[in-house]
Amino acid sequence: MKRVVIVGAGTGGLMVANMLAGRLAKERRLDTVQVTVVGDRANYLYQPGLLYLAFDLVAPGDLIRQVGDLIRPGVHFVHDRVRQVHPAEGTVETEGGQSLEYDYLVLATGSVVHPEEVPGLAEGGHAFYTLDGALRLRQALREFKGGQLLVTVGVPHKCPVAPLEFTFMFEDWARGRGIRKQTEILYTYPIGRAHSLESVGRWAEQEFAARGIQLETFFNLEAVDPEARTATSLEGSTVPYDLLVAVPPHIGDSLAAVSGLGAPGNWLPAHRGTLVHPEWPNIYTVGDATDLPVSKAGSTAHYQAEVVAENLMRQISGEPPALQYDGKAFCFIESGLDRATAIEFNYMRPPLVAPPTQAVHWFKQAYNRVHWLNLQAIV
Amino acid sequence: MKGSLEQQESVAAELTESQEIQDLLAEVRDAAPTLTHLVRRLRELSDSGALDGALELVELVNALRLSLTDGMVAQLADKARVGLETLDVLMRTELPDRLPALVATAGAAAADARTSRERIGPLTLLRAMRQPEMQHALRYLLALARRLPGREG
Questions:
Q1: A-chain residues near B80 (CB < 8 A)
Q2: B93 touches chain A (CB under 8 A)
Q3: CA-to-CA distance for A255 and A278, rounded, in angstroms?
Q4: Each residue of B55-101: pLDDT tens digit?
Q5: Contact B67 A328 (CB under 8 A)
Q6: pTM of the model
Q7: In B18-131, which residue ranges form alpha helices assigned H by DSSP?
């Protein structure tokens, strides 16, 4: 029997598991393949929805489902945390004391926010990258009557356009609440433009200019003073705020370092095409956890999961992994509360930003509801 | 300024002498009625907002296209195929004809059960089993159970 163990029950892990379950149904019935997912959370959170939660556009219950309900029949789910991978022995060791053997391992351990890197940020700022953070921000927005919104961005972070989306949605939201005139919006970014993707940065700067949003570049948040309500950058700029929304820097799961598999930042190295670990040909990485020069986004995890599932199936049947991931990512960009655009790019082709439309915004709204089907590999 | 005018006149002369441009101008002349109609329609569509709506749909279709991969298209096509094959099998049975009646029967039975005050005990069950419609239902259930796959011999 070939044993596939997938560490992580987030987007990448679930998609790989369910894709394999669907395509290896016969092998599972004959007990020649076993697929196991090990995840430390019993619930799956649809993270792109947190942005909408902050603006009271969805409820928390809309974003959460039990992992057990999202796994196809025949996939084993172990609710536990993997403490360490032993690649030489082909086992993973869990905090619950289990030792699971594998023939193939998929590391889908994601990324985590790390606000502790910035003193004062946890006390003085808001972030919509966790459920608790989004709920706190929702409350802050409910109480916001005007003033200075300051948006700061730490890199790397998941969902590369989310800070822009928040800013544009906030601007629309403030107009709708009748408080735009008494609200100043300052968006900051660590490098010399509004976004790491050049075309997105250019487009965003035009939108900022048209909508009266201020931009300060070369702003790397160093510290927050919650009492004085100021944020200071490494570059020496100190900015006051009434509402600070910060995208904290992210790091990879500690499993990478503990297991001796990782790279700086706890990211996991992977071949840019096959997504196989450079030292262990039976270990794949998928999603946020990789150190690849691609955006950390749900769509990236999805496209990578397709490649990993296909390559795993080939390896299981004795063929080499031949399908290559081309760096594809697809991101919606909400540019307000009722319009959006979308960008698609890969290793070779940068994104082009089309004018935002209501139709693409509706596409995003529909996708927010259809995502559960993707997770279960139904479509 | 004068130099610029001279340059412009020189470019214009070159263009009008070019065979390609002359052919293009002739085509435009021949297509004048169609072009006039198109321009008029485009203006109407633009004034009504429909042109913007159509262009939005173009953006939507493009976004959909960009979001897909070969694998996804193959999977969607497979799903559609399996779905249609399953539907086709169902449609060749009596199910489509019988389904409305079955659903109505189930609904009526549920209503009967809700309003009935009859106490069901062993004697009631024994009496019920002798009734012809109960015999029919039990025969059907037994026949179904005997034909179910995966039963142990």
A1: none
A2: no
A3: 17
A4: 999 999 999 999 999 888 888 888 898 899 899 889 888 888 888 99
A5: no
A6: 0.86
A7: 19-30, 32-48, 50-67, 70-91, 95-115, 122-129
